[in-house]
Amino acid sequence: MKFSRRTFLKATGAATAGVAAAVSMPDRFLSWAEEAGQKELTQIPTFCELCFWNCGLIAKVENRKVVKIDGNPLSLRGRGRLCGRGNAALGALYDPDRLKYPMINTGTRGAPVWKRATWDEALGLIAQKMNAIKEKYGPESMALIYHGTGAAFWKHLLHAYGSTLAAAPSFAQCRGPRDIGFVLTFGSDVGSPEYYDFSKSKYIVLFGSHLGENAHNSQVQDIVKGFSNGAKMTVVDPRLSNIASKAERWLPIRPATDLALILAWIRIIIEEGLYDREYIAAYATGLDELRAAVQQYTPEWAEAETSISSDVIVKVAREMGMHAPHVCIGAGRYSTWYGDDTQRSRAIAILNALLGTWGREGGYFFATGAKVPEYPGLPAYPEHVEVAKLDENYPFALLQTTTSIKQASITGQPRPVKAWFVYGANLMKTMPDKQETIKAIQNLDLMVTIDTMPMDIINYSDVVLPECTYMERHDNINVGKFKGEAEIAIRQPTVEPMWESKPSWWITKELGGKLGLSAYFPWKDGDEYLAKRCEAGGLDYAQLKRDGVIIKKGGSPYITADSQPEFGTPSGKIELYSKQLAEKGFDPVPKYTKHHQPPAGHFRLLFGRAPLHTFSRTTNNFMLTDLQKENYLWINTKKGKELGLKSGDIVTLVNQDGVKAAGSIKVKLTQRLRDDAVYMNHGFGVHAKGMTRADGQGIADDDLITKYVIDPFMGGTAMRGNFVKIVRGG
Predict the structure, then answer these.
(1) Domains of the chain
(2) How many CA atoms lie within 13 A of 51 on its CB side?
(3) Mean pLDDT, range 103-123, rounded to an integer
(4) SS3 state at 242
(5) Which phi and psi angles does 591 have, rounded to 5°?
(6) In whole angstroms, what is the distance from residue 684 CA to residue 692 CA?
(7) Environment class of residue 114 by beta-carbon count within 10 Å: exposed (0-12), middle (13-18) or buried (19+)?
(8) Are strands 327-329 and 203-207 parallel, antiparallel or unpaired?
(9) Reduced to 3 states, what is the DSSP secondary structure of residue 60?
(10) Structure pTM?
(11) Measured between alpha carbons, how far is 61 from 44 in angstroms, rounded to an integer?
């Protein structure tokens, strides 16, 4: 079946709509739908947590059981639609493998022996150890590593305890270089969801962005709308991703050479006068310095580096110039690639600036924001005790990095980190060099995991606390910034928590009480917590509960005569040449650096999302594993045949350090990939026996990521410098 770009979203919608019918749900669940029949169901709005997009959904409830999920048409994130993961909310809610009770490890980290505990026992043990650690090392020796909405309560607890040490892997292991590259150029990041004006774009360029496979709901809808309005697209990626298959032009670039291509485009745009002269004169600084710095990056030079024809390089640059400023050169999301990632992201920002896309229709819009006050009347946090900054070596780490937390946990320098609270983050799969992560954990005095599922990480925990799923709890208010509008969204229970799982607002309140911090947790329950915050912000809480969202209107999303931009850079302008980088000893204009290519007999290891999974977060979800239970190893067809392989063959992989992946993986021969790389979906190859459907299915790419390079600007960990050999037979 051949898909056009205009049927892209329709095809996706058809696939996800069929999820509910296709799954093999346990027998005890089937009766719920049968009993519900055609009766009118109670409808409760909330928002999804199966990825960070947090689309609004409506749960349909019968006899205190959720029997159906629909998108909330009032939600700006989903606009009434859900992806396959969102439609699989019942698989997350009713997974029999869920964490059910608090557990204490009476064995060792890595070889746990679990004892079922009461909440009072588990929290009492944690409080006892926290007090001992605080007494010996100080409160800032306690770290929170988190992912997800409920982490707000854990950050609040640690602040009350005296620690500000909290980090999300999404910064140092994913989007950090992208954000810093744009902040250094425009004084602002690109948002989450990103401020792409795809629906109005005339020309779109994406670098390694697997849009659609990563199911960024409203963004996929916007790009499809842009296509329907005639937008053209070029995708730069070693792999023909799903979104690349919808483009006019796919550029299968040699991995690790993207910066060479971007710098060549910058040179062409400047030398041929394709840049927006009025825009640059009004809003930017450093054009002359930029022009001088890129003279060496000719199209012919870039062809030798990237393997993309110089004629094509020139043609795409001219197409961008012809369609400017209605051009969106995507910043991507996962950007920790090769170690010079902040500079690559900054080059993308500079290219957008030259074309005048920032704050212009079809480029990047200015988002509308909204604020909801914190719970009123809380006491001030303890006075912060000055301690050595962990990220001192990374001068542009605007957020705390997990990189430096891990290093300090191992070395005790520049100060000791002796306890980790890990909330919703399966660190065995999110941080590179698994053995290094284990070494850091073994040095801790306390390791606590808060999660809904028995992920790989719990094997190294002292105490495991079962949080109830996002369908069973009140949670932090979610504020999304969009074009001309902001969305304030509520998460509220659709059913009561199952087994002995609890919401984070309750867990932190109880633990806070044992630590003598009850004054910081005055709310009676989650409902009161949200009601008081809405009251303090003048929001109609009854409306929020009823509709799931409140939409706030904003000003112009574009530059106009009456709406002029502000840039949060030292100069107050777009900085094509960065004096603040020069002052810190970095190149003020991005400079190309060669990276290692695969040695003989090896392939570069590439990885990404599966359309139906959010990494290991969903690989145990029975509504999704029935559709994809394992990953496959993509190999270029010609190269695979040279190796004597055919699709379906069983192989395993060994990396450049001699590390062999556990388990095996099936081969998928394809023409949609260069011959110097292999590709697989991340999140599979789980090593967690409690996840009965995911354990051991496929290969874990993270087993093979033993080598990484730290971005010197902001501490990001570049993971695409690993090479693998294929070993037949698994």
Answers:
(1) 5-93 (2.20.25.90), 103-169+374-552 (3.40.50.740), 187-366+558-582 (3.40.228.10), 603-728 (2.40.40.20)
(2) 26
(3) 98
(4) coil
(5) -125, 140
(6) 13
(7) middle
(8) parallel
(9) strand
(10) 0.94
(11) 8
